[in-house]
Structures are given as structure tokens and as C-alpha cells.
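# step 3/5: fold
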Amino acid sequence: MIVAEDLEQTYLSGGRPLTVLRKINLAIEPREFVALTGPSGSGKTTLLGLLAGLDLPTRGVVRLDGEDLRGLSEDARARLRAEKVGFVFQTFQLLPTLTALENVLVPIELRNRGDDRAAQARAHDLLAQVGLADRVHHYPAQLSGGEQQRVGIARAFAGTP
């Protein structure tokens, strides 16, 4: 599902190159569960961004579901992400002016421009699965941190990645 070969990521820091990742090789099969661990600043977020096509590596190849991300435009990478990747952000990234239900609907509506009833039913079902069936009309500020995180998880699964 995800293959990385000889990934390297270098940034300029204070006018000098700073290599954050060097010679990363991995293959993640469909339905395989992988955890990235390491100290703060070790490159975990950088690696995740590269694997999802949010950024392109300085060197190396990333293939997501067989697609070489180097050969895709930013728009094509965004479409591939919308179809294949679900993000649970560390800081939730919920839209404060949208309810829990509306936050979960965002990726569904971006992907399916069609059956509103089916989209609503899917969003309600996902929120019920994370224990928030009774909080669908609450805004992020009205939810606890744990509830916000669960909205973020429901949203990550909304696009059926």
C-alpha cells in the first residue's frame, strides 16, 4: 500500500542544510498496522507528510497504492490523498464554526458530490461508532479534548481510506 525507497529529506536551517531523514526504506501492506515512535524532533511528522504526499522528498521514492508520488501534480496528490489517506491530527484541526457532524461531513462532501442523505447517514454512523451520537450538533468548543479527538478520528474514516 505504501512503499518508501531511500527517502531523504533535507531543509535549509540558518542557511545550512539540515538532513532530517536519511535512507528510509519501508513497505506497509494493506491492513497492516505500523507505529512510528521516537523522540521529539526525530522526523516522525516529516516522514508521515512524505508518505501521504503532503511534501516531496529531497531524494527517494514514495509509492502510495502503486502511484509514484513524484510523477503527480499537487492536485493529483491531493485527489489520491482524499481517496486513500485518513488523517488524525495531533491538534485535531476541527473547524471551529462547524458542528461535530459538519466536521465529519467535510471529507465526505469533498469526495462525493451527490447523495446528501447517504453522507449524513455515514457521518452520523461514524460519530456513533466513536461514542458521540448525542453530541453531533455540538461545536468543537463545546466538546472535551477527548471528544474533539474522537470527532477527528471519525473524520479520518469519513472518506473510507
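# step 4/5: annotate
The chain has two domains: 2-84, 100-158.
# step 5/5: archive (pending)
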